[in-house]
Design goal:
The structure is a single chain. About 40% of the residues lie in helices and about 20% in strands. The chain is of the alpha/beta class. The longest helix is centred in the N-terminal third of the chain and has 47 residues.
Length: about 450
């Protein structure tokens, strides 16, 4: 009897166990399936979200250096390349490095541009470190080794090559070592190099016309093919004023009535299936800083020449400067003025007059005299009978340089120093009628007004 009672109970327990087991299996399968679905969704979303590529570019000018970081969607075309928009991520201006000579502790030197490190290449690592560390923190760590780093040096280093090629090359090698020790992609020496004047001019022209959407508008409209002799009115000319050089670039008329452009003043560029051959030239020593040195060197020698007897016995050299604000003065050392290759000729003249190591420019603030002195600087070679322009007079611009005739309808965009100086110093000037010869009246400023306007120059 007891055996008969136990059999139904055992059957109930067995059924319950089977049910519990099946429920456990079902729950487990459900959880596994849910986890798999979630994983697949995450994987799909991740695959749909493209990786981002980064590049670090250092613009090493003659007066300062800036780091630009760019980003764009990573290439997923199996190496075939894709066209995508490149955006600027952030900018980091490099701060100057202070150098104190142990033998002359009172003399403090601010190293602002890489050309200033000719004799201090060991300090370049500390110069680049703050901005490189910022790039390391803001670019995802898993993208560091895929992010190339570049440095393009301009006229400041072109002058350094002329001044001391060995030291200039040592500066570049030291920078390459700094980049090699960073986590970013640095594989070839050409990632750190000095741009030619032509490259600098063309780069500015392309960048300006791209930002103005000149190329994209032409491409989108699919305009008719232009004749190679036809002037393209859509492109703007570019004037770029740096510290050590200035660039002039523009498209031009190319017909039988005009003088052919020498190969040194043009190059072919293919953009959006169109070939452009703009005129381009970089005027070394005509940047605003080097031009100022040349102006002052000529001013100094002219004063020494006319007052030879006075300056021979004078304890201090005081030179009147019409371009310096009235009531101000500026003490300049011989080394700072004549160290540059741009003032080499004037240095030889200076040494025949005196051996003094410093002099003081006293501002007279005469705008008319200042303007005439600057015009004389532009005409320096034209007035030198030992120098002959090798081109026809109509095609010979300042510095005895070839330049084609300007198309009547061309428009120019002025960059860099033109903007910074003009935007501050010309602010508030009375603008006369469009038809007058002078677009702006030159004024004799007092120092207080100059200081206020120079804040952002």
């Amino acid at each position: 009897m007891e055996q008969k009672i136990q059999q139904p109970q055992q059957k109930k327990i067995t059924k319950r166990s089977i049910i519990n087991f099946c429920q456990g299996v079902a729950i487990t399968l459900f959880l596994l399936t849910s986890a798999l679905i979630i994983f697949l969704i995450i994987a799909y979303c991740t695959s749909r979200k493209p990786l981002t590529s980064y590049a670090i570019v250092f613009d090493a000018g003659s007066s300062h250096t800036e780091m630009f970081v760019y980003y764009w969607p990573a290439d997923k075309s199996d190496g075939l390349g894709t066209t995508s928009a490149v955006n600027q991520y952030f900018v980091c201006p490099l701060s100057s490095v202070t150098y104190v000579d142990s033998e002359r502790p009172t003399e403090i030197t601010k190293l602002k541009a890489i050309s200033d490190f000719e004799q201090h290449a060991n300090l370049l690592a500390s110069y680049f470190r703050p901005c490189l560390e910022q790039a390391m923190s803001r670019i995802p760590s898993d993208r560091h080794k895929f992010s190339p780093v570049f440095l393009g040096a301009t006229a400041g280093m072109r002058l350094s090559l002329l001044h001391n090629a060995t030291r200039a090359k040592n500066v570049l090698e030291s920078i390459r070592e700094v980049f090699s020790n960073s986590p970013f992609q640095f594989v070839v020496n050409r990632q750190v190099r000095i741009l030619t004047g032509m490259e600098e001019a063309i780069d500015g022209w392309i960048t300006t016309n791209i930002l103005l959407e000149k190329f994209t508008k032409l491409h989108a409209k699919n305009k008719r093919k232009r004749s190679p002799n036809e002037f393209d009115p859509n492109m703007v000319g570019v004037l770029d004023l740096g510290g050590a050089s200035t660039q002039v670039t523009f498209t031009h008329l190319n017909n039988i009535d005009n003088e052919p452009i020498p190969d040194d003043f043009t190059t072919n560029i293919t953009l959006f299936d169109t070939v452009y051959s703009p005129y381009a030239h970089s005027y070394l020593c005509w940047g605003k800083n080097e031009a100022l040195k040349r102006y002052r060197a000529r001013l100094l020698n002219a004063a020494l020449n006319t007052g030879r007897n006075y300056f021979a016995t004078a304890k201090n050299l005081h030179i009147r400067d019409p371009c310096l604000a009235n009531g101000t003065n500026d003490t300049v050392t011989v080394n700072s003025l004549f160290r540059s290759p741009c003032t080499a000729n004037e240095k030889q003249r200076y040494l025949t007059y005196t051996n003094k190591t410093s002099f003081k420019f006293i501002g007279s603030g005469n705008a008319a005299q200042c303007r005439q002195a600057i015009l004389n600087l532009f005409d320096a070679k034209r007035n030198d009978r030992t120098v002959n322009c090798t081109y026809k007079q109509d095609y010979c611009t300042f510095d005895d340089t070839f330049q084609p005739k300007l198309p009547e309808d061309i428009k120019f965009i002025a960059l860099s120093g033109y903007y910074y100086v003009f935007n501050n110093l010309a602010h508030g000037m009375k603008k006369p009628d469009e038809f007058t010869a002078e677009r702006y009246h030159y004024r004799d400023f007092q120092q207080e007004e100059i200081d206020r306007r120079l804040i952002n120059v």
